[in-house]
């Protein structure tokens, strides 16, 4: 019997080693080498089929044109993809289990008047049909299901069918006959994605791959996979909340700042066209500890509500907890408030929450966070007609933020009467129909708000 060839493969970076080591020699990670059988029998069908003659080209002579794109019926998805699905592109969608990756892609397959191949290695055809029945208003007679995990069979079927695009749920369930290692192992994932990418490029068929993520939020499998594909999308959001955010971590055909906002309802994912309206809860009376911020995600301003609760600490060490906002930044702001403006919060518990389950790292939230904390501490409500937008520096100064005009216009559109911004912004307040209050230091804020 022929000797079985095996290698030790780093599960983090995908590097191959002939011997086991405690530490990967490529990426330096510890305890990541796993023995995998890598008996690759022969070269596969698709990698070598298309031989395009390549010549040297002068960059000036290269002709450009817009990449042909398939415009999807989902505006949010188009926005994140940079204007639609580019032909021949491979897009990897990662996200927590149950966040809605399969739902998003099935919905896409069913809403498009295109020939779609939906490959599922995770669910049976009847399960997929049941899900499709839930998504009531969608019909596509040209959507074909294939519940298969063999890469060769999938590519053969795809080659025969030549669909307009392919969805594969998920890359971790696929296996290539050429390798003996189990599905989901680094060598299988690498081999399968390689073949799928060369198939997509040769036949100019776009492919969506679903990728599982590990417990620390990375897409499971080798990092090389993320380098190889054209687009990496992350689908996240709090599972207990209805909002789901689609972000591009990498996009060869568009920007990565745009986000798509969806809402999980009974019949699938619904696009959220006006997120600001949904994220702000209308209150019957003014409540202390609430402040509205005009945040910005990509090119879209988004109104968020910051809630803070400040109370006397029961235990010796006060608790600081934050949901949706960086806890370290909260601690920093508390220190700035104490040192630069004399607000004594050292013996207080501080809880902070961004409503709607939204997570953001926009620094423009700082001013609203401070306003919410002050309001809760003084137990005095901030008028519901006020909103905030500014970054706070370590010396307590309010710093300007990007896209300020756009943000102010959004606040005006949403019916706010006064917006607090940094005095260092270069803008002409007279052009807005909303009162723009420019402040320079955080100690001015309390005077402004409560006097
Ligand atoms: P799913 O798409 O299976 O997630 P993933 O593929 O990312 O693991 O998401 C399923 C979740 O969404 C599940 O918890 C049920 C919920 N859901 C709805 O609330 N409404 C629906 O119409 C559908 C299809 C699913
Ligand atoms: Mg799924």
Secondary structure blueprint with pairings:
Blueprint: E1 6-10, E2 16-17, E3 33-37, E4 69-70, H1 75-81, E5 85-86, E6 90-95, H2 101-111, E7 116-120, H3 125-134, E8 143-146, H4 151-161, E9 165-169, H5 186-203, E10 207-211, H6 223-228, E11 231-236, E12 243-251, E13 259-265, E14 268-271, H7 275-279, E15 290-297, E16 300-312, E17 320-323, H8 327-341, E18 348-354, H9 366-378, E19 386-389, E20 391-392, E21 398-399, H10 404-413, E22 418-422, E23 435-439, H11 442-450
Parallel strand pairs: 6-10, 6-11, 7-8, 7-9, 9-10, 17-18, 19-22, 22-23
Antiparallel strand pairs: 1-2, 1-3, 4-5, 11-12, 12-13, 13-14, 15-16, 16-18, 20-21
Describe the structure.
The chain is of the alpha/beta class. It has helices at residues 75-81, 101-111, 125-134, 151-161, 186-203, 223-228, 275-279, 327-341, 366-378, 404-413, 442-450; strands at 6-10, 16-17, 33-37, 69-70, 85-86, 90-95, 116-120, 143-146, 165-169, 207-211, 231-236, 243-251, 259-265, 268-271, 290-297, 300-312, 320-323, 348-354, 386-389, 391-392, 398-399, 418-422, 435-439. Helix 9 (366-378) crosses helix 11 (442-450). The relative contact order is 0.10. The model has no long low-confidence stretch (mean pLDDT 86). The site of thymidine-5'-diphosphate has 14 residues, from helix 2 and helix 3.
